[in-house]
UniProtKB/TrEMBL annotation:
<feature type="region of interest" description="Disordered">
    <location>
        <begin position="294"/>
        <end position="313"/>
    </location>
</feature>
<feature type="region of interest" description="Disordered">
    <location>
        <begin position="437"/>
        <end position="464"/>
    </location>
</feature>
<feature type="domain" description="PH">
    <location>
        <begin position="13"/>
        <end position="121"/>
    </location>
</feature>
<dbReference type="InterPro" id="IPR011993">
    <property type="entry name" value="PH-like_dom_sf"/>
</dbReference>
<dbReference type="InterPro" id="IPR001849">
    <property type="entry name" value="PH_domain"/>
</dbReference>
<protein>
    <recommendedName>
        <fullName>PH domain-containing protein</fullName>
    </recommendedName>
</protein>
<feature type="compositionally biased region" description="Polar residues">
    <location>
        <begin position="444"/>
        <end position="453"/>
    </location>
</feature>
<dbReference type="Pfam" id="PF00169">
    <property type="entry name" value="PH"/>
</dbReference>
């Protein structure tokens, strides 16, 4: 394979290239295969279909094709074959068979047929006649080539500037792709925050229901405590009454010693009943203390739940502020993206105007007449040519001034740094959310432990 030519000479001397279907030549097989074809200087060269990528990448063709068909004097006809309606037949008296090709569309077939027919006119005789004409044209164009060579140095600098502008446009496209990616990440983060907000709302609802149940238990315990207090007071009255009866009976016993033996039995029974009443009062007192402890624990749990509710409310407020900030940042990013796209379109339009000015300037220099004076070369241009050249130079000057101004603006506006800072803020907010969830889990564990301790104490008191 020949070395890569920097100016792409072999690439530009190719008249037409592309991938076509080809039927085997000079035998009866009907199997079609994909091949990469090149029309160059009156020859049809073909390679394997994978050669196209190498050709477009390296900008020169392999000098060792699978086959080379001379097109001089060939007959090119569009035909239709079974399964290939857009076929081409190439025949020649010197060929032992027909070269059959096929394209995908009628437009491509017409393009290939036209170029093949043009290339078939290049015979040995035509090439001999063309050599004299080429020599004459070279002599006539020698002076114009010299003028173009003198202008080449000036246009080379301008072409370099245009290449830099093209690279800048590609950089803007890359930045736009990165901004699109950041936009998708921010939208995903916003969606996650909304999900967390909905989850917190549901947890606040469950917390409110739990507090309501605790309030109901508190009222029930207070009612139970009131009932126990009333029973204790009734038993105390009954005790006083029993003691009064005991004193009366003791007095009667002192007066009626004869009936002492009969009454002693009743006195023992009353003492035993008094003991039972005192035991029952002690149990009621213990139940009252346990109820007060449960009430105190419920009040502590209510305080903890109230603190958790306040924490959840504060976090929900922070989430709402984060969503607002993300919405604002998303709008800012979209506006900046629109400005970048608008600036890109304006730069392309200015580049197009600059290219048109270069084309007009080149055409004016090529068309302008030349005269000889004392052996030195002098040039004369018409007024229209001078006016077109002046206008083209002004357009180019305006284009390069705009390029310099935009470069200054880009240096003062680092968009990527701003986007990186906003992304870091979003990560900080996410870290705060994770810390809040950890605190909430710890508080929930502490509340569960308190409830289990209260349940064990109640069960122990009930068993006693």
């Amino acid at each position: 394979m020949p070395p890569n030519l920097g100016n792409g000479e072999q690439y530009h001397n190719v008249q037409l290239y592309g991938v076509l279907m080809k039927k085997p030549f000079a035998h009866q097989s009907s199997k079609w295969s994909k091949r990469f074809f090149i029309i160059k200087d009156g020859f049809l060269l073909y390679y394997s279909d994978g050669e196209k990528k190498e050709f477009e990448k390296k900008r020169f063709f392999n000098i060792h094709p699978k086959g080379a068909i001379p097109l001089g004097g060939c007959d090119i006809q569009p035909v239709e074959e079974n399964g290939h309606p857009f076929s081409i037949h190439i025949t020649n008296d010197n060929f032992n068979g027909v070269v059959a090709l096929s394209t995908d569309t009628g437009f491509e077939r017409d393009k290939w047929v036209n170029m093949l027919r043009i290339s078939s006119r290049v015979t040995f005789k035509n090439s001999q006649l063309g050599e004299a004409m080429i020599q004459q044209l070279e002599d006539q164009g020698l002076q114009m080539a010299q003028d173009k060579h003198d202008l080449y140095g000036q246009l080379q600098t301008e072409a370099t500037a245009l290449q830099a502008e093209k690279e800048k446009t590609e950089e803007l496209e890359r930045i736009q792709a990165e901004m699109e990616k950041e936009k998708e990440e921010m939208e995903q983060l916003s969606e996650d925050l909304r999900s967390e907000y909905d989850k917190l709302k549901e947890e606040m609802k469950l917390t409110a229901e739990a507090m309501q149940n605790i309030e109901e238990d508190k009222h029930e315990l207070m009612n139970t405590t009131s009932n126990l207090q009333a029973n204790i007071e009734a038993l105390a009255k009954e005790k006083e009454k029993t003691l009064g009866e005991l004193r009366e009976r003791q007095n009667v016993a002192n007066k009626l010693s004869q009936e002492k033996e009969d009454l002693s039995k009743n006195t023992d029974e009353l003492k035993e009943m008094l003991k039972k009443i005192e035991d029952q009062m002690q149990r009621l007192h213990d139940d009252r203390m346990q109820a007060e402890n449960r009430l105190r624990e419920n009040e502590e749990q209510s305080v903890v739940l109230q603190e958790e509710k306040n924490s959840i409310s504060d976090h929900a407020t922070e989430l709402e502020e984060s969503i607002k900030e993300l919405t604002t940042q998303k709008q800012i990013t979209e506006n900046e993206l629109k400005e970048e796209v608008k600036a890109r379109y304006e730069a392309e339009n200015r580049l197009k105007v600059a290219n048109e000015s270069l084309s007009k300037l080149d055409k004016t220099l090529m068309v302008a007449g030349t005269t000889q004076s004392d052996g030195n070369k002098t040039y004369s241009y018409s007024e229209n040519a001078q006016e077109e050249m002046s206008q083209s130079v002004k357009n180019l000057k305006r284009f390069f001034e705009n390029v310099a101004f935009e470069a200054q603006l880009d240096a003062k506006k680092p968009v990527l740094m701003k986007n990186a800072l906003n992304t870091r803020k979003a990560y900080v907010r996410r870290a705060k959310t994770l810390r809040y969830e950890a605190r909430k889990q710890t508080s929930k564990t502490r509340s569960t432990a308190t409830i289990m301790h209260s349940t064990r104490m109640h069960a122990s008191a009930s068993s006693e």
